[in-house]
What we know:
The protein has 114 residues and is mostly helical. Helices cover 69% and strands 0% of the residues.
Amino acid sequence: xxxxxxxxxxxxxxxxxxxxxxxxxxxxxxxxxxxxxxxxxxxxxxxxxxxxxxxxxxxxxxxxxxxxxxxxxxxxxxxxxxxxxxxxxxxxxxxxxxxxxxxxxxxxxxxxxx
Length: 114
């Protein structure tokens, strides 16, 4: 499945869920409230994932015990990322490939380091 198809599925899902605000509102320069909310939500999910990783690093739990929990949080991060992209009209696929080319040039100096 293409990323654009996944984004469409998420956009359709979001359009069907209106609670205190519209989950699929476009983000514009005129109203940054949705941008702020989604960014805070994204950071919350990253924090939840980091908390699991902290438990592994601290030795409280093993990676295999938390792998599914980490996958759940990583998926939440992915969802908020694609939401931000479509709600700001950012072509995430095109942005990815542009950034990949930039990183190839940036890290060229490390290519043959052993």
